[in-house]
Amino acid sequence: MSTLKEGDLALLIDSKGRKYLITLKKDVSFSFHKGNVALNDIIGKPDAIKVLSTHGEPLLVFKPSLEDYVLKMKRGAQIIYPKDISRLLTLLDIFPGAKVFEAGTGSGALTLHLLRAVGQTGRVVSCEKRKEFYETAKTNIEKFIVNEPSGELTLLNKDISEKIDEKDFDRLIFDLTEPWLFLDKAVEMLKPGGLIGCYLTTVLQIYSLMEEFEKNFSKSLYKIGIFELLERKWEKEGLSLRPALRMVAHTGFIAVFRKLS
User: Fold this and answer.
1) HSE, side-chain direction, 13 A CA sphere, residue 109
2) Which of 42, 49, 133, 256 is at 20 to 30 A from 194, Cα to Cα?
3) What is the pLDDT of residues 212-234, one digit of tens each?
């Protein structure tokens, strides 16, 4: 049975479905609009328990999933949403033991998923030019993986335009505003057959990327496609089953290429 320990992350969910991400510490209380919860009442207990606040509000307590964590963790840059991350991992065929380069660490959301996907035998090298984003991502990643086996990670605080000595990557991901400026570097860094994924938020960015590909890289890269995902939940209330009033619609585009020999 999984036990909640001091120093663990915990996800608290109230009766309205609001979520609170906390770190468990002895002799400390969690305070919110419906009272306080003594964290001593959670530490040492099994995962997935229910506690009551001092005002009688019931709260469910879970060890957070990776999705829970990335949606609640501190952000520097905007994160790639879980719906897009899951498709990226599939489209790029991220496998145990893979060697992956990520350009644009951001807040570390995709980096955490990559570390889990490559497994303990894999390696992720992630590059972030902005010092404040690099520091935030470093903290976010270390906070989650401290008790979780994961792949080897190298975090670089440098611009992708600077020299990157390492090559022979299986996969490469661009989470940058202008990835078309670095397609030549991607081709140089990847193994033949290696996959490139570009995450972009606007149509104009996708257009510029495809223009560059068609003009200068159609002989060195094979275009797999451009993808967009929309996510909609459904709700059941009594005899009614209907789509939720709000949905996660456009968040970004994923363009995927494969290096030719």
Assistant:
1) 24
2) 133
3) 999 999 999 999 999 999 999 99
